[in-house]
């Protein structure tokens, strides 16, 4: 009998297959780990992930089975050298790697139990696809919308050669302002994609509201003008004004007839006009809805309007003034399944805007046309007064404020309480918020500015 000799080829194959099996197993594990919670971009990508994973699992099984097969053969010859077995038993021992029925051979269990090739056969780790809570994010280079600053016509009725520039807001702007004022929210903006987000940096109009300006002397003149304009029986009759809004009007010197340009006199002139029955009901356009008295006098003056909630004996300190400003906006827009979410990250007021900036025909007048047209449209909605009667009714005169979201401001909740100590207190005029009228107006103009992006004709 020839002497038993170990040969380098079989051990090398056995070790190589074992190492390759371990390497493929680690590769299979880390490949699937890299796919965990990863969003699939396409069906083809998922198909290739499954192909690669299944192929690596097959190689793991193949290499480990081959290593075990080589080891089993060597162990089997060692077993047969030390034990006697029949040819049937030897045949069963060699055939068991390919025929599972050989496990029923009794001699296999008695003579070759230690060499049974119980090679673990297991399924590879499953690769499953689940709906992700995280949106699939991809970046696209797209032109961002901007407010049109090259032509005045989308925003205003514009006087051509010799027409003096701005005349009135366009129909598009008037409808947009009316829609936002009635709904109280930003109009729907067309999304670039159903699910998308982007940021905008742009210049646009904003409103700054606060207490009535001026010194104590002006406040005294304001109170006196109010009492003279309204009448000496304010608060003593069956009805009383609980809301009014006006814009400064042209003031003239009673002696010389010259135009008075200081803002205090223009303000008092506007206050008188709102209580003049002939003027307030004049629909011919003699009563301005925007502060245009500074168009040729003070280019740094801001367009103003005033809103008041008078109580008996207190007028100036119940009046707020709002001014128009050019402002920088930094806005984030997000669309999820078509639903828009808009956040103003930063709003910085830069400089006041007056009608003087939109007179003439120069290109320098273009950017502020949208600003003035919005202010004009808003002035048309607010201007007028509301009369509360002792019988609980509210009678608006010219103003459309009762059809807007401004009725939810805290100041508007007591319009029927205007009789003060002399009359009965009525019910609240609606479901309100804790926002003051000043805060509500500022928010409204910001919503109007952002709603400009909802109309392609204004971009």
Q: Could you walk me through the main structural features you see in this protein, from its secondary elements to its overall organization?
A:
- By secondary structure, the chain is an alpha+beta fold.
- The protein folds into two domains: 107 residues, no CATH class; 303 residues, no CATH class.
- Helices cover 34% and strands 18% of the residues.
- It has ten helices and eleven strands.
- Strands 3, 4, 7, 8, 9, 10 and 11 form a seven-stranded antiparallel β-sheet that branches. A two-stranded antiparallel sheet has the order 1-2.
- A hairpin with a 4-residue loop joins strand 10 and strand 11.
- It is rod-shaped.
- About 5% of the residues have low confidence.
Give a short summary of the structure.
By secondary structure, the chain is an alpha+beta fold. It has helices at 9-35, 43-82, 87-95, 106-111, 171-183, 216-230, 263-274, 277-280, 369-382, 437-451, and strands at 156-159, 165-169, 196-211, 239-246, 251-252, 259-260, 304-308, 319-336, 339-352, 384-389, 394-397.
């Amino acid at each position: 009998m020839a002497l038993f000799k170990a040969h380098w080829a079989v051990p090398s194959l056995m070790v190589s297959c074992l190492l390759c099996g371990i390497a493929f197993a680690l590769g299979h594990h880390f490949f699937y780990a890299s796919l965990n919670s990863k969003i699939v971009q396409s069906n083809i990508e998922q198909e290739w992930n499954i192909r690669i994973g299944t192929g690596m699992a097959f190689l793991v099984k193949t290499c480990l089975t081959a290593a075990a097969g080589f080891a089993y053969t060597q162990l089997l010859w060692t077993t047969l050298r030390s034990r006697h077995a029949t040819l049937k038993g030897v045949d069963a021992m060699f055939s068991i790697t390919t025929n599972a029925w050989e496990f029923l051979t009794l001699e296999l269990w008695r003579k070759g139990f230690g060499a049974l090739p119980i090679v673990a056969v297991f399924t590879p780790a499953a690769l499953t696809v689940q709906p992700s809570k995280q949106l699939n994010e991809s970046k696209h280079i797209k032109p961002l919308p901007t407010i049109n600053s090259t032509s005045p016509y989308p925003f205003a009725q514009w006087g051509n050669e010799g027409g003096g520039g701005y005349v009135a807001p366009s129909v598009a702007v008037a409808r947009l302002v009316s829609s936002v004022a009635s709904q109280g929210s930003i109009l729907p903006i067309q999304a670039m994609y159903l699910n998308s987000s982007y940021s905008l940096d742009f210049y646009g109009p904003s409103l700054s509201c606060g207490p009535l300006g001026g010194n104590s002397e002006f406040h005294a003149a304001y109170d006196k003008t109010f009492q003279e304009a309204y009448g000496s029986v304010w608060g003593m009759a069956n009805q009383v004004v609980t809301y009014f809004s006006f814009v400064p009007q042209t003031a003239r010197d009673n002696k010389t007839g010259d135009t008075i340009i200081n803002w205090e006199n223009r303000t008092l002139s506007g206050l008188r006009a709102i209580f003049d029955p002939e003027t307030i009901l004049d629909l011919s356009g003699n009563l301005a809805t925007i502060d245009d008295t500074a168009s040729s006098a003070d280019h740094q003056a801001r367009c103003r309007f005033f809103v008041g909630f008078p109580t008996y004996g207190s007028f100036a300190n119940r009046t707020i003034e709002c001014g128009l400003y050019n402002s920088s906006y930094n806005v984030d827009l997000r669309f999820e399944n078509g639903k828009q979410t808009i956040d103003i990250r930063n709003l910085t007021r830069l400089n006041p805007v007056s009608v003087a900036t939109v007179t003439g025909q120069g290109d320098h007048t273009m950017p502020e046309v949208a600003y003035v047209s919005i202010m004009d449209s808003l002035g048309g909605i607010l201007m007028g007064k509301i009369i509360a009667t002792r019988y609980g009714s509210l009678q608006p005169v010219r103003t459309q404020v009762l059809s807007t979201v401004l009725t939810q401001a805290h100041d508007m909740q007591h319009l029927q309480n205007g009789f003060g100590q002399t009359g009965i207190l009525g019910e609240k005029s609606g479901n309100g918020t804790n926002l003051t009228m000043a805060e509500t107006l500022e928010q409204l103009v910001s919503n109007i500015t952002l709603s400009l992006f909802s109309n392609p004709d204004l971009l």
